[in-house]
Design goal:
It is built from twelve helices and eleven strands. It is an alpha+beta fold and 325 residues long. It has two domains: 211 residues, no CATH class; 39 residues, no CATH class. Strands 1, 2, 3, 4, 5, 6, 9, 10 and 11 form a nine-stranded antiparallel β-sheet that branches. It has a two-stranded antiparallel ribbon with strand order 7-8. It is globular, with a radius of gyration of 20 Å.
Length: 325
């Protein structure tokens, strides 16, 4: 597969690639904004990858199930490493439903359910990505996540953006400056203006990279949000988004932040099996991970997101200056 310009620039910049800062690095309360990172890769089992992260970043490995581990107390905080397959982790779905699924005690899935999950994971493990997931980090700690990616590569991590079944995602869970409707609408509008360029940059790696991208936002929805007169409150923003995008498969997934405000309302608008994790972040899902590329850096992908924030800031309504005395 031909390497994308993003992948090539990642190699050229590593290991001291420059991560740009968004124009508004602080939340409304004056505290630093944070970002969580998800990196998908192929190759070593989750246990092997978790052990490599513990060796390189400190901490101890704790098993949740045979395909999901926590690396606790690392220099980057707690990190999850797991097979990206919900059926491999039946206990999570059970705990959310409050049902034992045959266990009779509500404490976890019954043996048949657990066995089925292990069998499916063993069968699909060679073709399903693993993922390493950090907690929220200050922006200035993003260069340390490059070290995490290098450790995965050293443990045998493979993948350059996409596989036959889809994308190898590099996801940023970005805390916005605030949760006001104007701020969220401005960031969404800026993303929609940039989405064609972001898709071209990410898909330049070839056919698989292009096929692995999330579907673009529907054209009628884009036209609505880009209308200069579109100034929704939070209720209208959520209603309009869910009407045209009842899915997490968008380059900028707004479901987590909308569900953080009204989880019941969001879930009612989604298909029953749609995955959503309520949290006050913008889930930027466009970038692709290149763990198989030695010296790969997250910086170019992150800097493209910073460009979205800069565009939003440039187009933000300016507060009126007070009249001179």
């Amino acid at each position: 597969m031909v390497e994308s310009p993003m992948a090539e620039s990642s190699r050229a910049e590593s290991p001291s690639a420059a991560f740009r800062r968004p124009p508004r690095p602080l939340r409304a309360d004056g505290t630093p904004r944070r970002v969580g990172v998800e990196i998908e890769f192929m190759g070593p089992p989750a246990r092997v990858a978790a052990t490599a992260l513990a060796a390189g970043l400190g901490g101890r490995v704790a098993e949740e199930d045979p395909h999901a581990f926590r690396v606790e107390g690392t220099s980057l905080g707690d990190i999850r490493v797991e097979l990206d397959l919900r059926a491999a982790h039946p206990q999570r779905r059970v705990s959310k439903q409050g049902s034992g699924q045959g266990s009779g005690q509500g404490a976890g899935p019954g043996l048949p359910v657990r066995a089925a999950g292990r069998t499916l994971a063993a069968f699909l493990g060679p073709v399903v990505p693993r993922e390493a997931i950090t907690g929220p980090l200050a922006f200035d700690r993003l260069p340390e996540v490059d070290r995490l990616a290098a450790l995965l590569h050293g443990a045998g991590g493979r993948g350059r953006g996409a596989v036959l079944l889809g994308s190898l995602g590099l996801h940023f869970n970005v805390e916005p400056p605030d949760l006001d409707a104007a701020t969220l609408t401005g960031l969404l509008r800026a993303y929609l203006r940039r989405e064609p360029d972001l898709r071209r940059a990410t898909a330049a790696g070839g056919f698989l990279a292009a096929r692995g991208l999330p579907p673009p936002f529907p054209a009628p929805y884009v036209a609505r949000v880009l209308d200069p007169g579109y100034r929704p409150d939070l209720d209208a923003l959520a209603r309009d988004y869910l009407a045209d995008n009842p899915t997490r498969h968008r380059g900028l997934d707004m479901l987590p932040i909308l569900a953080h405000r009204d989880e019941a309302g969001v879930r009612a608008a989604l298909p029953p099996d749609e995955k959503v994790s309520p949290r006050p972040v913008l889930h930027y899902r466009m970038p692709q991970a290149h763990v198989g590329l030695a010296g790969w850096s997250l910086a170019p992908a992150w800097n493209l997101w910073v460009g979205v924030e800069e565009l939003a800031e440039e187009n933000a309504p300016q507060a009126a200056s007070p009249d001179p005395a």
